[in-house]
Please model this.
Amino acid sequence: MSKKYTIVLVLLSFLVQAQAPKKLSSNEIFEEIQKLNFLGKVLYVAAHPDDENTRFNHLFCESLSC
Model:
């Protein structure tokens, strides 16, 4: 019985593939490097620590190209 499970797991492991890395153009690589040089601060006040709005943080960061 455990031999069957082992064979099935081995066969399934060949079907699983990792995500392919995203291919960036030279311009996109340059922009990503420029973002590394950005240092900024944002004061975000919420009622509770778990009230963080990640969409707002992402939007704010993208608008400043940080």
Remarks:
- The chain has a mean pLDDT of 77.
- DSSP finds three helices and no strands in the chain.
- The CA atoms of residues 24 and 30 lie 10 Å apart.
